[in-house]
Amino acid sequence: MLTTAPDNRLYVVVGVIQRQNGELLIQQRPRGKDCEEQWEFPGGKLEKGETPEEALARELNEELGIIIVQYRPLTQIAFDYSHARVWLDVFLITGFDGHVSGAEGQVMRWLGISEIRKLDVLKAVHPILDQLDAN
Length: 135
Hints:
By secondary structure, the chain is an alpha+beta fold. It contains three helices and seven strands; from the N terminus they run ββββαβββαα. It has one domain (6-134): Alpha-Beta Complex (Nucleoside Triphosphate Pyrophosphohydrolase). It has helices at residues 52-64, 113-116, 125-134, and strands at 10-17, 24-28, 39-40, 43-45, 67-80, 85-97, 108-111.
């Protein structure tokens, strides 16, 4: 797995959090942000000096109040939005401690892949769902 984003892209870690029943946590971007009210998996930017795993742990603790205990790399995706070129380092989280709560007031849902596909998701979510379907 790369630890620096290629082509000067913004390096973003993404956590696909999966319950034992297979449902995934998806959240809605707040109003006022790029791609407002579209749905995404939680995560955030890699900070200078962090590994992707450290960034993932920090972001999910800050955003959701959880501590990751079991995860694995899922995929990496280069994606171009009109407002940003991003490198997504995506992890599947199958174990965590704590109770999921939206620290930023974001709307969250636990849904299956087919239900998520019906939402207005960020375009980069589609290849992640395709990867999950392939597993």
